[in-house]
Amino acid sequence: MSETSNCTGWLRFPKIGLRMFRFDFAFVIRQRSVHCLVDEARKKSFSSDMKWGSHIDAILKKAFNRLNGIRRLKSVLSRVVKETLYKSLVLPIVEYGSVLFDNCSACLKLRLERLHRNDAVIVTGAFKNSSFARLLNELGWDSLEDRRKLARLSLFKKMTLSAQFHKDGNVNEILVPEYLHSMVPPSVGDRSGYVLRNAGKLDNVKTRLVSSYNSFLPKTTRDWNSLLSDNNDLKAIQQSKTIESFKANYKKQFLRTPNPLYRIENGGNMHQTRLRLGLSQLRAHLFQHNLIDNPTCQFCGLEPETTSHYILKCPTYTVHRVRILMGLTNLLDAPYIAGLNDDKIVQLFLHGDPLLRPPRGWLIDLQIDTTRSILMHKLLMADVLKH
User: Fold this and answer.
1) What are the residues facing 33 on neighbouring strands?
2) Which of 26, 54, 214, 377 is least surrounded by CB atoms within 10 angstroms?
3) Sign of the torsion formed by the C-alpha atoms of 123, 127, 129 and 131
4) Residue 114 confidence class, pLDDT cut points 50, 70, 90
């Protein structure tokens, strides 16, 4: 009954509450497998061999049901609304208890990432064959595996802080139950007593099986030790005093930052996104993905219909191109525009200028993005009419 005692002690912890009537506790030992804490409210399922296949199937089934609801409304919802719906309705289902099943097989992880990719396609309006890495950069999202790693390290940070608070006698500052912070391995310096270069590292947890090697404590301990290096930024992450500063420093160093210019709602936002992703209606993009056999522009026939040719060179869109450049000249100085080559002008059209930043530059950047979005939409609509 040691599992029952541990669970009872956990429930007595002052910062944890539980509605008993919503849970059914069953501790069954069969073939060296322990079934515990079956959450009937969330319908969690655990297999007898303690593998995560049935659990991943259950959460993916529920997540895809909600994702299909967003898909049916994708044509009438804005990008910001679709992204908010995904993060509030679907993502919590996928990430509930993710620190536990992060040691699942690579096949199950790939199935979870496929769900993440499907929603990225829905939110951006991109084609299905678009690059997953470019989709994540476009949205400023991180892969589910990176998010699970941050969740594991955040919990481990709480455990280390609580262990230190318990050692110092600050009981009121403890963030996790005792059975968690007591699991933190000792550091090399505490164990050896010598002044060593790796004194701050924790002892790796020894395991026999691969499944145990990739479980929470051994895997997170290795990730935690990897933050100890000669890099001052990594040291700042591990030596953060609070869990909030730890997450902020970690996200700044390792995770993506969304570009607010990509979230501006206008008629041409979806078309611009496809151009940035490198898969749009342009013939050069379709040729690169083996969808057509000839990349040459069908209007002028002079060269492949690339993004640069479409925006700056094709004579079919001369009137729209002059209108766009006049709009940019009114927003920026003429010498600035004259000093840009073709590649930089395309970069300005699709991504804005990273050198134009607050306080004045940020507003100019947004104005440029809004203006070129509307004009680019007209240009793209002219392309559709020509077809």
Assistant:
1) 30
2) 26
3) negative
4) very high
